[in-house]
Structure formats: structure tokens, C-alpha cells
Design brief:
With 340 residues, the chain is of the alpha/beta class. It folds into three domains: 65 residues, DNA polymerase, domain 1 (Orthogonal Bundle); 180 residues, Rossmann fold (3-Layer(aba) Sandwich); 51 residues. The protein has 17 helices and nine strands. A nine-stranded mixed β-sheet has the order 1-2-6-5-4-3-7-8-9, sandwiched between helices. Strand 5, helix 9 and strand 6 form a beta-alpha-beta unit. Helix 10 crosses helix 11. The longest helix is centred in the C-terminal third of the chain and has 18 residues. The radius of gyration is 21 Å and the shape is globular.
């Protein structure tokens, strides 16, 4: 698809009720998104999956949306728009049955090697400690920690990764101009500097409860492995685990007392086949190739550093997590001082 198709994808994404499935149906039914955009009510209603309500919404809203202005709006928020036809669209999300057609990203693009950490919004003190310890170790070992910026476990996961000097990705249930919950705005700013804020929601989309299950599938899609720290049987974290399993990702859970309501969800996951995570090393087993890769690139890293490349530029060029780049640069500086 070309530039024109990209703009139509952004435009359709701005219409409430049009997601990946309906976008695909419209493109197939009309033979192109440009034709679908100009279709009349009768033809729209004949599209599979597009009923009277959605057809009316499309006709009403399409006169009000402007994809060029939407990209300007995203830039004003400090971000950018990446569509499914762009080369820099995260490949990991293509493992989803219906990938989000549009992403709004503030900060660095999500790294390839990510571990998701999710759980209840009302954790116990033990759950908070576990989220911190596991997430901090993941970050120290060079993995980006992915979570949902919610209260509770999500917050602890993001903060631990930041404190460890690692990367963290927050997948939002709101658009990038409206951080939810509001008290996490400061945290979101820190994350954008040291990782990324990611949302599939356009500026035209309100923050409603239905956004959060959709957000969960992106957390699962970006994550190479998913850890559920603490969750009741009704926790949204179990929804994230379902998405992860559906797209072939390994799911891990921290066990707890059988009488503890906050551990019923994690215990159930383990019963259903999730890995038992007693220590961060359990989740990381077999994932140390990332650490080895940074060692293999040491000569290239040193050359880039001495040519004046920044840590962020080195990370992007060599596809090594920024925390590993910083660690290697520290080693180089110490070695240089030792020779001096």
C-alpha cells in the first residue's frame, strides 16, 4: 500500500467502531479503502460485519476526521503514528489474529525483546514487592518491561524497570493525550524518556472500560513472555494471559496461598499449564541470547562510541537494549581509565 492507503487507515481508525476486523472487511468488500471511504449507506450496510449503526457512524464521522491533522496532533503530543503498512510497525504484533491497524507511539519504538508484567490494581504488599523484584531483574538483564500503566502491579513494574536503568513500555487504554489514571502523568513522562508509551486509540476516541481488554492484547503481542504477578479470578490480567496464550507466547505466574483471593487467578493459570515463577530466573530461562548478543557486538559498539554515536543511536543500529549499551560503555570507560 502507498501513502494514500496509509492515510485512509489512519482516517478509518479515527471512526469509533472501526477496528482491525472491520477495516479488513471494508478493504476486501470494496477492493480498496479509498472506495470504502466514499461508499454510500446502502453499500456500507452490505459489508460483512458492518451493520446499520456502524454504517451510520461512518457516514456521520468521516466528514469530521482529517488524518493529516491527526498526525500533526500526535506530533504535538510528542509522538508519532505508525500504521500496519509502515516498515517500522512492530513485527511482534503481527502474531495477533487481528493486529491494531494504527499505533501512536511516544518515545522509542518497542524493543524486540520484551517481557510483560501484569496483575491486580489492588495488590498486597507481597505482590508489590514481587512485581518490583521480578521487573527490576528483567530490566537489569536487558529486557524491556511491558505493562499497562494501571494502578497496582503495573505501576510497580514500570517503576522498577526505570529504577534499574532499563526500558519499559506502557500500553495505554486511552489516547496519548489523555493519560489514565491522571495521577500517573508524571510516571508516563518518565516512561516516554526511557522507553515508550503506546496506544491504538485516536484523538477522537474517549476513554471507556472497553478500551482496556483491547489494550491487553497489545501487551501480550509485544511480550516475548508474560508474567502474571497477582490476580483474582476476575482480574483483567487473566484476559492478558489468554491473549498471550492465543498468540503462542509463554505465560508464567507467581503462586500463592490457596485461600488468598488475590492468588486464585495465578494459581488457576498454573493449573492450566502456565509456568510457575518462583524466581525471575524461571521466566528468563532460555532468554539469555540477548545478553550474549550484546557481547558479540562489543567491537562494533566500541567503534560507534568512539565515532561519537549516542547510546540511543548505538542501541538502534545494533538492536541491543539500551541498558546493555550503557553497561558496555561503562566497561569501556573503566578500561580506558585503567590504561591511562
Amino acid at each position: 500500500m502507498g501513502k494514500l492507503d496509509r492515510l485512509y487507515i489512519i482516517a478509518f481508525n479515527m471512526v469509533q467502531g472501526i477496528g482491525g476486523l472491520r477495516l479488513r472487511a471494508l478493504a476486501e468488500h470494496f477492493g480498496g479503502l479509498d472506495k470504502a471511504w466514499e461508499a454510500n449507506l446502502k453499500d456500507l450496510r452490505q459489508t460483512p460485519g458492518i451493520g446499520e449503526k456502524i454504517a451510520q457512524q461512518l457516514l456521520t464521522q468521516r466528514e469530521k476526521v482529517d488524518p493529516v491533522r491527526e498526525e500533526e496532533w500526535a506530533r504535538k503530543q510528542g509522538g508519532r503514528i505508525v500504521t500496519i503498512v509502515d516498515q517500522n510497525y512492530p513485527q511482534e504484533l503481527r502474531s495477533l489474529a487481528v493486529p491494531p491497524p494504527v499505533l501512536y507511539i511516544v518515545g522509542h519504538a518497542p524493543r524486540k525483546h520484551c517481557i510483560g508484567v501484569v496483575g491486580t490494581r489492588r495488590p498486597s504488599p507481597a505482590g508489590q514487592r514481587q512485581a518490583w523484584v521480578f521487573s527490576q531483574e528483567f530490566a537489569r538483564r536487558g529486557f524491556a518491561v511491558v505493562s499497562g500503566l494501571a494502578r497496582g502491579i503495573d505501576k510497580q513494574a514500570h517503576l522498577a524497570a526505570l529504577r534499574a536503568g532499563g526500558e519499559t513500555v506502557a500500553v495505554l487504554g486511552s489516547h496519548i493525550g489523555s493519560i489514565y489514571p491522571a495521577e500517573h502523568r508524571g510516571l508516563a513522562e518518565q516512561i516516554a524518556k526511557q522507553g515508550a508509551l503506546v496506544s491504538e486509540f485516536a484523538s477522537t476516541h474517549p476513554t471507556v472500560p472497553g478500551n482496556f481488554p483491547r489494550r491487553n492484547r497489545i501487551i501480550a503481542g509485544l511480550s516475548q513472555r508474560l508474567l502474571v504477578v497477582e490476580a483474582s479470578l476476575k482480574s483483567g490480567a487473566l484476559n492478558t494471559a489468554d491473549w498471550a496464550a492465543e498468540c503462542g507466547k509463554d505465560v508464567w505466574a507467581i503462586p500463592g496461598a490457596i485461600a488468598d483471593p488475590l492468588r486464585e487467578g495465578t494459581n488457576r493459570l498454573i493449573q492450566q499449564g502456565a509456568g510457575l515463577a518462583a524466581d525471575p530466573s524461571d521466566v528468563l530461562l532460555g532468554l539469555d541470547e540477548v545478553s550474549e548478543a550484546s557481547g558479540e557486538h562489543l567491537d562494533e559498539l566500541a567503534k560507534l562510541y568512539h565515532r561519537g554515536a549516542s547510546p540511543d543511536e548505538i542501541s538502534a543500529l545494533l538492536r541491543i537494549p539500551i541498558s546493555h549499551v550503557l553497561a558496555r560503555l561503562t566497561d569501556l570507560e573503566l578500561a580506558s581509565k585503567g590504561r591511562g
